[in-house]
Automatic annotation (TrEMBL):
<dbReference type="GO" id="GO:0043539">
    <property type="term" value="F:protein serine/threonine kinase activator activity"/>
</dbReference>
<keyword id="KW-0067">ATP-binding</keyword>
<dbReference type="InterPro" id="IPR000719">
    <property type="entry name" value="Prot_kinase_dom"/>
</dbReference>
<keyword id="KW-0808">Transferase</keyword>
<dbReference type="InterPro" id="IPR017441">
    <property type="entry name" value="Protein_kinase_ATP_BS"/>
</dbReference>
<dbReference type="InterPro" id="IPR011009">
    <property type="entry name" value="Kinase-like_dom_sf"/>
</dbReference>
<keyword id="KW-0418">Kinase</keyword>
<comment type="similarity">
    <text>Belongs to the protein kinase superfamily. STE Ser/Thr protein kinase family. STE20 subfamily.</text>
</comment>
<protein>
    <submittedName>
        <fullName>Kinase</fullName>
    </submittedName>
</protein>
<feature type="binding site">
    <location>
        <position position="46"/>
    </location>
    <ligand>
        <name>ATP</name>
    </ligand>
</feature>
<dbReference type="GO" id="GO:0005524">
    <property type="term" value="F:ATP binding"/>
</dbReference>
<keyword id="KW-0547">Nucleotide-binding</keyword>
<dbReference type="GO" id="GO:0004672">
    <property type="term" value="F:protein kinase activity"/>
</dbReference>
<feature type="domain" description="Protein kinase">
    <location>
        <begin position="17"/>
        <end position="198"/>
    </location>
</feature>
<dbReference type="InterPro" id="IPR047173">
    <property type="entry name" value="STRAD_A/B-like"/>
</dbReference>
<dbReference type="Pfam" id="PF00069">
    <property type="entry name" value="Pkinase"/>
</dbReference>
Amino acid sequence: MSGSGSKLTYSVKKDDYRLMEQIGHGASATVYRAIYLPLEMVLAVKCLDLDRCNSNLDDIRREAQTMSLIDHPNLISAYCSFVVEHCLWVVMPLMEEGSCLHLMKTAYPDGFDEPIICSVLKETLKALVYLHSHGHIHRDVKAGNILLNKSGIVKLGDFGVSACMFDNGDRQRTRNTFVGTPCWMAPEVLQPGNGYDF
């Protein structure tokens, strides 16, 4: 890193990272706590198995691009991404406390107290306002995608089903694709023909 205020650049070489324990997984991706060896920095690496991925390559490219372009304190951003064998590695900050879902399952089985809910939702809404103001919709906001670090910072992650509301430079008024996690979807989204009114 050169000078104050400049952004740190990360290597796109596999050998500069040491994957440690698995900290999360999904249908086609596994997230590891990792060490960036040149700086001995702890971070997270999401390994997306391109062979097992249900999404097409355009969807994967879009998620990686979205993560690298966003710049908001309440959104998970990608430091860099690169291909290792049949996997796309996405390097990102480590959110040590994990997801709200994980915290509720392990430490708050009766759910969070209302002040905690208010704080988490306030920060999540800031992330959504930023995304919407830049023409993106998340489409999968749920406890498992709201992450916290050890300082209590809240970040919204997982842009796998996010969408851009601009097509060929023109703003679309609705999205009609049915994506996300059904039990977390708004009832109106589940109604035929409604889509997302943005």
